[in-house]
Amino acid sequence: MRSIGALVLTAMATAGIATPQGRPVDWPSAGGDARRTGWAKSDVRITRDNVKDFQLVLKSKIDGPAPGSKALTPPVVIGLLISYKGFKELGFVYGNSGDLWAIDLDLNRPFWKTKLNAPAQGGPECASLATVPALTPPAVFGRRPGGPRPAGGAAAATPRPTLPARLGGGGFGGSRSVYVLAGDGTLHMVNSSDGSDQFPALKFLPANTKPASLLMTDNTVYAMTTGGCGGVANAIYAIDLAQEETSPVSFPLAGTDPNGTGGFAVGNDGTVYIQTGSGVSDPASGKWGNALLALSSKKVEQKDYFLLPKSAARKNPALNVTTPVVFEFKGRDVIATASPDGRIVLLDSKSLGGADHKTPLAQTPVIASSQGGITGGLSTWEDADGARWLAAPVWGALNSAFKPAAANGAAPNGSIVAFRVEEKDGKVVLVPAWASRDLRSPVAPVITSGALFALSTAGQATLYGLDAATGKELYSTGNQVTVPASLTGLTLANGRVFFTTTDNTLYGFGIFMEI
Predict the structure, then answer these.
(1) Is the pLDDT of residue 466 over 80?
(2) With contact defined as beta carbons under 8 Å apart, do 467 and 474 qualify?
(3) Region class of 234: left (phi > 0), else alpha (psi between -120 and 50), else beta
(4) What is the structure's pLDDT at 277?
(5) How far is CA 285 from CA 12, 226, 255, 281, 393, in A?
(6) Angstrom distance (rounded) from CA 457 to CA 472
(7) Record's InterPro entries (predicted)?
């Protein structure tokens, strides 16, 4: 039997053969990264020209979860694992049954399955949500994995601190932990090679709560609870795994119920951003309805806040709540989120809303009609020319006064709308670029190489490939899926786009891997 060292050397020597179109990439969390951008920067297998050639490349029935719109997650992906069965690209899917599956994405079959424990109790609504697992993000030259940028843009010269064993290993192609939340609130670090617990589970959340997000960045795991399940008030939690003796900390979200798909985003400096649900904001008493909060890294203590504008005309205020997205623009972090009046607002990370906490950096016109809204999450990317874009999923018709530069047909049920982020006369502006074809209950899109992928979830789920510059349709899965899609999001990795459906099936559409 070859040694692990020999396997690694072989992997490095043959990486070009195993992946002729580029080194495999990971998709480590909901939204693809801590900023929740939905952007795969380096998926060289996909181009705008070959989207038309997409095919069904994976269909896997997952047994166990109680069917529902949030019963099964899309996969987080390790692009290359050197396992005891050879090179593997694995997708990790979690269900509300408390089961975690590793799917061999190349061979279209299960690799292993493990049950963590019984799912959360407390009624159907509290037990109906599966939380997307998380991986340690891949290392980026000059910064810690997923962590803040070093000062001056260069790696710090100070020696690295000694970290606990649970944060070691996992080098090129090696096994590493898949972070998963169990129904009893414990955080499991599951071995990606065989599904065993690599380390003892850690007490993280109260039992029987409903977690809505999980993220690992800068050696810290974050999660959020919603729905007031288990008799516990909603909160955002953090646990610093770099500490030998770990102890979770939390920030209460009293009087509100956040419901963005990804929950929250983490900026390049480690600041945590979260949009709260409908309710009344009273900073003096710690009530945070209709607000965007900035919390400190690791300790989740309040740093700043923005009070979102309200609208009495909205028929369903829960629709205009999204997971924020963070992007760099002109040397600073900018946060984008939806507002209750059906707009998108941009906020400056240095001061979210000025002295009155109500003044945005920029905002769009009202996008959604009063019957609909922007929901779930936003996405952002840069095109080949370096221009910054932002896209939002809209449920229901667009506001009749909203006129993007390009339309792609009537869209009475929903659509994706896209904006260019520009600077004019020294001010940041959002320029409406295009609106997509009609979509039913779309989720936040994913983007790579000039192509944007949008999922129409209601009725018969349909995945569309669109030109990211114009919204023009390049590809559609047509009638290949006959049931609704889950509302848990999309994954894009290594030439394929993945999603799950309400009958607990994992689908992958894309470019077949070259052998």
Answers:
(1) yes
(2) yes
(3) beta
(4) 82
(5) 56, 20, 11, 9, 33
(6) 19
(7) PQQ_rpt_dom, Quinoprotein_ADH-like_sf, WD40/YVTN_repeat-like_dom_sf
Q: How many CB atoms lie within 10 A of CB 374?
A: 26
As a whole number of angstroms, the distance between CA 386 and CA 392 comes to 20
The proportion of the chain whose per-residue pLDDT surpasses 90, expressed as a percent, equals 64
* Bridge partners for 448 per DSSP: 451
14 pLDDT exceeds 70?
Answer: no
Greater confidence (319 vs 266) lies with 266
3 state SS for 274-314: EECCCCCEEHHHCEECCEEEEECCCCCCEEEEEECCCCCCC
Write the DSSP assignment of 317-357 as a string of letters.
GGGG-EE-EEEEETTEEEEEEE-TTS-EEEEETTBSSTTTT
pLDDT digits 0-9 by tens, 287-324: 888 899 999 999 999 999 999 987 656 666 667 788 99
Interacting residues of 485 by C-beta distance below 8 A, sequence separation 6+: 443, 455, 456, 457, 461, 499, 500, 501, 502
Q: Running DSSP on this structure, what letter comes out for residue 165?
A: G
Three-state SS for 115-138 is ECCCCCCCCCCCCCCCCCCEECCC
Domain 35-149+163-510 class, CATH top level: mainly beta
